[in-house]
Structures are given as C-alpha cells and as structure tokens.
UniProtKB/TrEMBL annotation:
It comes from Zosterops lateralis melanops. One of its GO terms (cellular component) is plasma membrane. PANTHER family: 43 KDA RECEPTOR-ASSOCIATED PROTEIN OF THE SYNAPSE (PTHR46574). Residues 1-80 form the Rapsyn myristoylation/linker region N-terminal domain. It holds the Pfam family TPR_8. It comes from the Eukaryota. InterPro entries: Postsynaptic, Postsynaptic_CS, RAPsyn, Rapsyn_myristoylation/link_N, TPR-like_helical_dom_sf, TPR_rpt. Keywords: Metal-binding, Repeat, TPR repeat. One of its GO terms (molecular function) is acetylcholine receptor binding. This is Receptor associated protein of the synapse. GO terms for biological process: positive regulation of neuromuscular synaptic transmission; synaptic transmission, cholinergic. TPR repeats lie at residues 123-156.
Length: 330
C-alpha cells in the first residue's frame, strides 16, 4: 500500500469513526497498519487507533499501540514524531493509573525541546502530568501543571486544550472540596464548547456536562445535576464512550443516594446498563439487567392501572390523579 492509498484509507476510517461506525473504522485502520509500507502513514494510523481505543476504554490496547508508535517514531528518526509518541505513552499509562510512569514520560517529552511540534504539545504534556499528580493526591504540583497547561492554551489560543484543562480543574477542586470552583471551571468548559466547538468531537460537551453534574450534586443542586448527567450519558451512549458511561452511572447513583430514592436509582441503573449491553450485544449481561429491572418494577409496584404495562421502562408521559395514582397519559 503506497503513500496516497494509505492516506485515503486513513481518511476513510476517520469518516467512519466520526459517523459512529467505530468497528468498521478500526478494521480499515488495522488493514492499513498491516499493509502500508509508508512509515509516516503507519505512525498516523497508530495515532487514530490510540485515540479510538482511549475513547472506548480499552486502555491496554491503547498502550500496546502507543508502544508500537514509539518504535515507528524511532525508525523515522524524527523528534516531532518521537515527542508525540511519548505523549501517547504518558496518556496510556495515565488511563491505566500508572501515574509515576505517566510523569516520567511527560518529563521525557518536556526535555525534547526545540521542535515545532514539541512546543505545541507542551500544554497537553502539562495537562497529562497534572492529571497524574492529581491521581497521586500531590495537589500543589497538580495545580502548578494545570495552570501551566492553561497558560499554553491561552498563549496559543488553543480552545480545545483550554476546555480539557477546565474539566481537569473541575475534578481538582472537587477533590479538595472547593465546590464553587469545581462548578466554575466545567461551566467555563461548556461555554467554550458552545462558542467554539461546532467542529469538535461531542466528547468535549459530554465531559463538561459530567463535571458540572458532579459539582451540582456536591452543592445540593440535584435537579441541575440530573439534567447535566443525563446529557452526558446521552452523548456517551451515542459514541460508545464506555469510561464516561461508567462515570455517569456512578454520578446517577450518587444523585439518587442524595435524594434517598435508592430504589429509583437502582431502577435507572439497570435500565441504563440494559441499553449499554444491548448495544454491545453482550446477551448474558443484558438478560441479567432486564431481570433485575423488572424485579425493581415489581418491588416498587410501578405499573399503570389502566394498561398494566410497567412505568419507567419507556419514556412515556404520565398523568397524576388527585388520589396519587399514576397512569400512562395515552
């Protein structure tokens, strides 16, 4: 496979991926990886595979492709490619909670100064290092890294990086229990998405909404928390973002626990898990959650007195009568 054909196939995979045809995109990229004789093309397709596996939560595969990408960069003897590959190694280890390795790879990136790409990537490197320090609960160094990343974003007018840093700062302030700032920064991220994010991946909107949901819950604004979490989960389900789906499920559970409606929380949990496993065609897990959902419905007696169908399984409008009974509006 020559240079032009490699480029065409990579673009074909990107089009499929952006259309939510993830598995087809992965098959196209894997064929490029197997057949392409163009090292630069292989490097680029490995970057696509790393990003896709990161968003699907397949972090071990993400790391595997990052290692291969680093080997490819060494073959090319290009410092720009090498810096980018070390950043992907750092991110992969960050996702796997190997925070000391993340910091080590980030320092390697920062030491590779002098190239155009390395300067452009310094903000992303600082962000990854900040996330690692936060994972280790080294709060002062985490904040220093986030502030450095934010300066890079402002100096280079990089709105996408600024959005990501704001989400990480939301997480930071949640952990140190400064909930007003924990809300301010993801709200700022959401503003950036609205103002500049027309061509961005929807994951930026989803992440800002998730971090807003967490902050709203901590502040006791549970209705706002629920709205943001539902918006984030909707996008995560559309794009097959399993890590974000898991975070949203935990947030839903926390919201319902704060409301002390534990049974309703379990009902929503099983309903969402059913949708996730149905999409993934994991039939045994799907069956388990369908059974548990109906057990919750029976326990809570959530049945329409007119048609006999369960309430809550589908998004149907309800009518509440003065006697406190609920019926499907239909």
């Amino acid at each position: 496979m020559g240079q032009d054909q490699t480029k065409q196939q990579i673009e074909k995979g990107l089009h499929l991926y952006q259309s939510n045809q993830t598995e087809k995109a992965l098959r196209v990229w894997m064929r490029v990886l197997e057949k392409s004789a163009d090292p630069a093309g292989r490097f680029r397709v490995l970057g696509c595979l790393i990003t896709a596996h990161a968003e699907m939560g397949r972090y071990k595969d993400m790391l595997k492709f990052a290692v291969v990408q680093t080997d490819t960069a060494r073959e090319l003897e290009d410092p720009d490619f090498l810096t980018e590959s070390y950043l992907n190694l750092a991110r992969s280890n960050e996702k796997l909670c190997e925070f000391q390795k993340t910091i080590s790879y980030c320092k390697t990136c920062l030491n590779m100064q002098g190239t155009t790409v390395s300067v452009q990537l310094n903000g992303q490197v600082s962000l990854s290092m900040g996330n690692a320090f936060l994972g280790l609960s080294i709060f002062q160094k985490a904040l220093e890294c986030f502030e450095k990343a934010l300066r890079y974003a402002h100096n280079n007018d990089d709105k996408m990086l600024e959005c990501r840093v704001c989400c990480s700062l939301g997480n930071f302030y949640t952990q140190i229990k400064d909930y007003e700032k924990a809300l301010f920064f993801p709200c700022k991220a959401a503003e950036l998405v609205n103002d500049y994010g027309k061509g961005w991946s929807l994951k930026y909107r989803a992440m800002s909404q998730y971090h807003m949901a967490v902050a709203y819950r901590k502040l006791g604004r549970l209705a706002d928390a629920m709205d943001c979490c539902e918006e984030s989960m909707k996008i995560a389900l559309q794009h097959g973002d399993r890590p974000l789906q898991a975070l949203c499920l935990l947030c839903f559970a926390d919201i319902h626990r704060s409301r002390r409606d534990v049974q309703l929380g379990l009902l929503k949990l099983h309903c969402l898990c059913e949708r996730i496993y149905r999409t993934k065609e994991q039939h045994r897990e799907l069956r388990d959650h369908v059974v548990k959902f109906h057990e919750c419905v029976e326990e809570m007696e959530l049945y329409c007195g007119m048609c006999g169908e369960s309430i809550g399984e589908k998004n149907n409008q309800l009518q509440a009568l003065p006697c406190s009974h609920f019926f499907h509006l239909k």
